[in-house]
Structure formats: structure tokens, C-alpha cells
Amino acid sequence: MSSGTLAVIGLGQIGGSLAAAVKAHGLPYRVRAWDRRAASLGMGAERGWVDKVAAGAAEAVQGADLVVLAAPVSAVRRLLGEVAPALRPGQVVTDVGSTKGSIVAEAGRVLPEGVRFVGGHPIAGTERSGIEAADPRLFDARPCVLTPVATTPEEAVGRVSELWSGVGARVVTMDPEAHDRVFAWVSHLPHVLAYTLTWTVLERLDDRALGLAGPSLRDWTRVVGSPPALWRDICLENRESLAAVIREFEAELEAVRRRIETGDAAALETLFHGAKEGRSRLWTV
User: Is the pLDDT of residue 265 over 80?
Assistant: First the structure.
């Protein structure tokens, strides 16, 4: 197990949970953190999750053995440029962003030679946000996708993998572009559909009609409680893959509409049955 200093930039739900998990699992890291909210840093230190509070992002990463940029996708690229001058050869940097292609490319452009970047995406979290929602068991048995490229040293990948497996996650590696295509389907599209369905229903129905909604609508739209700005940025960062996925889904939805209009009961039942029988694969593969 690697040891030394772990710099965590951003103490929201993910960064706070990571700092907490490092301590809960007894990993031999000294945690140094920075967040733009002083209250988050105070809470992290008070709970014993943070050993040292830094005055800024650049100060936090200086001399750190491993740097985690635990910020929203819109901030990660900016942070890469901000901390780059303070980094030295041999340091390893990773992130927790929900998109990978543009972030990995930016890291390749701005980080100094000898500083290794390994894209990361822990598949954890809830619709809540902030360190107040942090949970030291958040990553237990959850996947964490790492997206090294051909030139990424195995030692750097191993160090990041060791961190995430050490806090309970199940590490998976894949190509950055493949990651963005997969998550356009399994995460980004579902959020777009939930936001769009909620907006459309609210526009079409009055309060009396909305009062008749059952649990299916509530369950479908649960993720709408997530921060809108965060999901705006995720959608735009992954716009190419997401737009392609939306077009494919539109074609499927159009086919369903035609089956309903033409009364094609057999085709509808085949679709519904296949989805019902296959749904368990979403959580067992």
C-alpha cells in the first residue's frame, strides 16, 4: 500500500467521502485538502478526515504523492491549469469527473513532463451535495472507472487503483472515449430524460392533476434532485456522445409510438417483457 501525502482538492460529497474513507479504512495517507468553502475545510478537519488544511489548490498539491481533483467536470480542467505550476515529476494526479475524454486531453496539454495523470470516475454518490452528504462507506463495492491512455505508466495506474480499492471500490479500466460512450447511455441520458420528463409534466398539468401522480413518477424523477449546474456541465462536456445516444433513443421511442398507434400488442409486449427480464443484468453483470 502506498503512503505519504494525499491531496484532495474539493471537499464536496465525493472529496469529503474519499477523505473520510481513507481514515475509516486505515489507509496510510496524510490527507491535505483545499476547498473554496472554508466551512467544508473546517468540517473535514473537525471530523478528523483532513490532517492539514491548505490555503489554496497550488499549496495543497505541493509535494503530494497523489493528487485527487474532486471537483465537478466544469472545474477540473481549470484546476489542472491552476495546479500545474506547483507539480513536479513523479507526482500522480487523478480526478473524479463523470466525463473523461476532454479532461484526459487537457491533462496531457497542461501538466508538466513527468507528472502522470490517470482519469478516474467513482460510480457513487447521491442527489445530495456538499461535505454534509459525505459518507466514509460511499464507495464500498461500487465501481470506480480508471481511464489510462497508452502512455500512462503502470506504476501510476497502480497507485490510483490502490487508493480506490483501499476505500472499498471495485476498480475497472477502460479507454476515455469508450467511457464517455458508455456513460452517455447508463448515466447521462437517464438524467436528461428525468429532467425533461419532469419539466414537461409540470408544463402540461395543473396542481390538481399532479396530485394524482403515483410512485412511478417519483421514482423515475428522483435524480432531478441533483444539482442542475453540475448536470448541465456534464451534458455539455460529453455533448458528442450524448447527442448521438439521444438520436438513437429517439428512434427507439418513435418505434414504440408507432406500435402504440397501430395497436401492435405483440410487439409492445415483446419489448416490455424483454426489458423486465433483462433489467436484473443492470446490477448483476
Answer: yes
> What DSSP letter does each residue of 54-113 carry, written as one string?
-SSHHHHHTT-SEEEE-S-HHHHHHHHHHHGGG--TT-EEEE--S--HHHHHHHHHHSPT
**CATH superfamily placement of domain 178-284:** 6-phosphogluconate dehydrogenase C-terminal like domain (1.10.3660.10)
Q: Model confidence at 272, in pLDDT bands (50, 70, 90)?
A: very high
**pTM of the predicted model as reported, rounded to 2 decimal places:** 0.89
**Does pLDDT of 3 surpass 60?**
yes
- State the burial class of residue 265 (Cβ atoms within 10 Å of its Cβ: 0-12, 13-18, 19+): exposed
CATH 1.10.3660.10 in the chain, residue ranges: 178-284
**Using CA atoms, how far apart are residues 245 and 185, in angstroms rounded to an integer?**
7
Q: Does domain 4-174 have CATH number 3.40.50.720?
A: yes
Task: Spell out the SS3 assignment of 256-271.
Answer: HHHHHHCCCHHHHHHH
